[in-house]
């Protein structure tokens, strides 16, 4: 399986997981000039822009570290592009999947 195919499989797993938690999937792989967001989901009134990190051979907890300050900046810009036409409270989130389990961080902008 190629890295691209692994990434798509990870996004499918992430979407299923979030739906089990009560999130509604708005769209997948949303693109703007600033970048791409893997998943846009809604829970209640809040829209989450979710970066998925699928590491089938990795350790749990490394996914958030892979979301660099530049990636966070691009995620914010892409979120603002979406929100210009769909105003809503929002969060930038990360969902990590490894063989050890699943970890969802609902607001990575306020993580150290």
Structural write-up:
By secondary structure, the protein is of the alpha+beta class. The protein has helices at residues 3-20, 69-85, and strands at 24-32, 35-43, 46-55, 90-98, 101-105. The chain has one domain (3-110): Trna Endonuclease, Chain: A, domain 1 (3-Layer(aba) Sandwich). It is built from 2 helices and 5 strands. The longest helix has 18 residues, at 3-20.
Compact overview of the structure:
The protein is α+β, with helices and mostly antiparallel strands.
Blueprint of the fold:
Layout: H1 3-20, E1 24-32, E2 35-43, E3 46-55, H2 69-85, E4 90-98, E5 101-105
Parallel strand pairs: 3-4
Antiparallel strand pairs: 1-2, 2-3, 4-5
Q: Give the CA-CA distance, first to last residue.
A: 34 Å
Number of β-strand runs: 5
CATH 2nd-level architecture: 3-Layer(aba) Sandwich
Oligomer: single chain
Helical proportion?
25-40%
Strand content range: 35-45%
The neighbouring-strand order within the major sheet is: 1-2-3-4-5
The CATH topology name reads: Trna Endonuclease, Chain: A, domain 1
User: What are the segments in which pLDDT stays under 50 over at least 5 consecutive residues?
Assistant: none
Instruction: Quickly count the helices.
Output: 2
Mean pLDDT across the residues is 89
Structurally, the number of domains stands at: 1
| Basic shape | globular
Structural class: alpha+beta
SSE arrangement, N to C: HEEEHEE
The major sheet is characterized as:
5 strands, mixed
Radius of gyration: 13 Å
CATH class categorisation? Alpha Beta
